[in-house]
Write a structure and sequence with these properties.
alpha/beta; Rossmann fold; four-stranded parallel β-sheet; 10 helices; 16% strand
Length: 269
C-alpha cells in the first residue's frame, strides 16, 4: 500500500519568534499538497539539545524517517530548508539512503534540493533579497546580507558566488557569512570604498534565529553590528529570515514540487 508524506528538515532554531515562520512554511506545503501528511526535523544537534532542555522534543532527520517508517509511510519527499548543499544537506541524503535500505526496496525517499542548488536559484534569490531591502534605504547606503557559512565544506564557495551576484546587481550590496568566506573582515575594505555612512544588515538565513539575533544584530563586541558601529557606521538590522519572503520560499517550494514529481514517477506498487 502506497502512503506518502513530506518531511521538512531545517537547521532549526531556539528563538521562539521563528516558530511562526516554520508554521507558515508548513501551511504553504499543505496548501500545495493537500492530504499529504507533513513532519518536521531539525538537523542541528545543538538546537535539538537546547530545545530538549526546555521540554520541547524535535526529531533528528533519521528519527523522523524512522517514525514515518513505523507509521507505514512508503514514499517520502524530504525538503532541505537549508541555504546551500553543505554538510547538513549531504547528511540528509545519507539518511534517506539508510531509510530506503532498511525498507529493502519497499520504500522511496527523494531529497529536495536546498535553496541554492543552481545558478538560476542564486539569481532568483539575489533579486529577491534586493527587493526586500527597506524602502527607506538611500542610494548611498550599503547593505550586507549575512549568511551562516560553512567553512568545513566546499559548498561554502556558493556564498562567494552570492556576493559576486548581488554586487553585480548593486555595487553597494555585499554578502558576508558568520562561519565561512567571505566573512565581515573580507568585505570591509570594499565596503569602506563605497563611502557609505549607513549599513543595513539582513539575514541570508531561512529564519532570524540566534545567529541573526546575536552574531549579526547583537550587542556583544563580536557581532556584525558592533564591529561596524566601532568603525563609525550607522547600522540598521532587519530581523527577518529569507523564508519569510514569498519570492524565496517559492524557490524551496519549486524544489519540493520537483521532488514530489520524481517520487510519484517511481511508484512502488
Amino acid at each position: 500500500m502506497r502512503k506518502e508524506a513530506i518531511l521538512l528538515a531545517a537547521f532549526g532554531s531556539t528563538a521562539l519568534e521563528t516558530q511562526s515562520v516554520f508554521d507558515h512554511i508548513e501551511e504553504q506545503v499543505r496548501g500545495a499538497f493537500p492530504g499529504v501528511p507533513t513532519a518536521w526535523a531539525y538537523t542541528s544537534r545543538n538546537v535539538r539539545s537546547k530545545l530538549a532542555r526546555l521540554g520541547r522534543i524535535v526529531d533528528s532527520p533519521s528519527m523522523a524517517l524512522a517514525r514515518l517508517q513505523d507509521d507505514s509511510f512508503t514514499h517520502v519527499a524530504l525538503l532541505s530548508l537549508h541555504t546551500i548543499p553543505g554538510i547538513e544537506f549531504h547528511q540528509l541524503v545519507h539518511d534517506a539512503k539508510i531509510f530506503e535500505a532498511m525498507a529493502a526496496g519497499r520504500s522511496r525517499v527523494v531529497v529536495a534540493k536546498p535553496l541554492l542548488a543552481s545558478h538560476q536559484d542564486l539569481k532568483r534569490a539575489a533579486l529577491a533579497m534586493l527587493k526586500r531591502v527597506p524602502t527607506e534605504r538611500r542610494p548611498e547606503d550599503a547593505v550586507v546580507l549575512v549568511g551562516h557559512g560553512s567553512e568545513k565544506h566546499a559548498a561554502d564557495l556558493i556564498y562567494t558566488a552570492v556576493n559576486a551576484t548581488v554586487r553585480e546587481l548593486d555595487p553597494r550590496v555585499f554578502l558576508a557569512s558568520v562561519q565561512g568566506y567571505p566573512g565581515l573582515g573580507d568585505i570591509l575594505p570594499k565596503l569602506r570604498q563605497t563611502g557609505a555612512k549607513r549599513v543595513y544588515l539582513l539575514p541570508f538565513m531561512s529564519v532570524a534565529g540566534e545567529h541573526a539575533r546575536k552574531d549579526m544584530a547583537g550587542e556583544g563586541p563580536g557581532s556584525f553590528k558592533s564591529i561596524l558601529e566601532r568603525k563609525s557606521y550607522e547600522v540598521q538590522a532587519v530581523l527577518k529570515g529569507t523564508a519569510e519572503y514569498p519570492e524565496i520560499l517559492g524557490i524551496w517550494m519549486d524544489h519540493l514540487r520537483l521532488a514530489m514529481t520524481q517520487l510519484r514517477e517511481n511508484r512502488l506498487g
